[in-house]
Structures are given as structure tokens and as C-alpha cells.
Write a structure and sequence with these properties.
globular
Length: 236
């Protein structure tokens, strides 16, 4: 248990990487239960940073960090840590599926007006940070760039470009960020981390590698990354 984290309230929001699964768990349960931290994990598989995408596979509206930010504040205005994650589904739906005309956007380093272009990924993320800093004044707001994840070179390049944009926004706003993509060694191209010849169910149940597919983590993968995140949260 960390003395710095013990008893602090933390809320999370993002996509399936943050949400985890019933079998493999997630970051929130590992870190919060270990450190006696009250928490709420708002993350949902398939979730996006932006809003306005097509419904999810079951026909329900797609989870959006932007659209659930007010709910997070209404339910937990006293949170000590507010952790955001997400972006890969935005990339896939914008660049691969072409569901909207949203682009990655341009970040103006001198514009702190709060009026940002919601036709861009960066505009949505800037708006989230602008509002979060006002809602949770003086609290610890942060963003996690997910680990390496791709099926092919084109997907890798697209996702990295959007995550780079997210880092640019974080730097502008002084939001601490953890870049798991660059700062941990998880890599789906290494077969001892991800076996593409086995089904996701097999990789999940056997739990010998870090990935169940080229994107999502096994329990072993969550154990590894949760330790990194916990140490990072302790530092600020």
C-alpha cells in the first residue's frame, strides 16, 4: 500500500483499455483495492474521447468521455484524482471507418478561451481539460496514453499520430500524462507477448502473454501496467 494514495478518491474514464474485462480485471480494481481508494470507473469498451459517432454494436449510444464529464463531476465533485484515457477508437472511427468529418486538429498554444473546435479530436480533448480543471480545482487531473497496439503498419501510424496530438494537448494544459506507448516495453509484435496464432479466448485464459489480441491486455498485462501506473500516480 502507498501512503500517498491510501484513502484518496479516484475516478477513471476511457475505453476498453481502462474498462478492462470481467476475467482480466483492469487498472482501477488493482490499484484502488490495494490502496484502499474509493473509486468509480466510468470507462466503457468502445468508448471515445469525442462525441457524435455511430452507436455501438448493441445499438446503444457510444460511450464518450466528453459527454460523461459532467456526470463524473456531479457524482464525484470531491475526487482527488481524475484519470482520463482513450483515443484509439476515435482514430479507428475517424480514419478507418470514416464515420464523421472530425480531424486530429491543430492546437493553438496561446488559446485558453475554452472555445475549441469540436470538429477535431484535439478540440474535444482541450474542452475536457478546460472543464475538468475548473470542476476539480487544485486536484490531480491526468491522462494515460495506452500501450502499443496495432494490427498493421497503417493502424500503428494513425494511432500514434493521434496519441501524439493528445500529448501535445496535455503539454499545453500542464496535464501530467503517462505514455505507456513509449515508456513501457509491451509490444504486440513480440510473440512471447502476443501469440497471433491463438484465439483471444485462448490467450486470455492461458494468461502466458500480455495481450489477448493485438490491442487488449490479459490479466498479466494489467498486472504489469497497473504497477507502472500506481508508481506514476504516487509521484504527483
Amino acid at each position: 500500500m502507498s501512503e500517498g494514495l491510501n484513502g484518496k478518491k479516484i475516478i477513471w474514464n476511457g475505453d476498453s483499455i481502462c474498462a478492462g474485462s470481467q476475467i482480466c480485471g483492469n487498472w482501477a480494481t488493482r490499484i484502488c483495492e490495494k490502496n484502499n481508494m474509493p473509486y468509480k470507473n466510468y470507462a466503457v469498451g468502445g468508448g471515445t474521447i469525442c462525441a457524435g459517432f455511430a452507436p455501438g454494436p448493441d445499438g446503444t449510444p457510444r460511450h464518450s468521455v466528453y459527454l460523461t464529464l459532467d456526470t463524473m463531476y456531479e457524482e464525484h465533485p470531491d475526487a482527488d484524482y481524475i484519470v482520463f484515457e482513450g483515443g484509439c477508437n476515435d482514430v479507428d472511427r475517424i480514419e478507418i471507418l470514416g464515420e464523421t468529418n472530425i480531424t486530429d486538429g491543430i492546437v493553438d498554444p496561446d488559446d485558453f478561451s475554452g472555445n475549441y473546435d469540436l470538429n477535431t479530436f484535439s478540440g474535444y480533448l482541450e474542452t475536457i481539460f478546460y472543464r475538468a480543471l475548473k470542476y476539480w480545482q487544485g486536484k490531480k487531473i491526468c491522462y494515460i496514453v495506452a500501450h502499443k497496439m496495432w494490427d498493421d503498419l497503417a493502424t500503428k501510424e494513425r494511432r500514434r499520430r493521434y496519441y501524439d496530438k493528445a500529448v501535445e494537448v496535455c503539454k499545453k494544459w500542464g496535464i501530467p500524462y503517462l505514455d505507456l506507448w513509449n515508456d513501457c516495453y509491451l509490444n504486440p509484435e513480440l510473440q512471447w507477448m502476443y501469440n497471433p496464432y491463438k484465439s483471444p479466448d485462448e490467450n486470455c485464459i492461458e494468461n502466458t502473454g500480455f495481450y489477448i489480441d493485438a490491442q487488449h491486455l490479459t490479466a498479466k498485462g494489467y498486472d504489469f501496467t497497473a504497477d507502472i501506473i500506481e508508481r506514476w500516480l504516487e509521484r504527483f
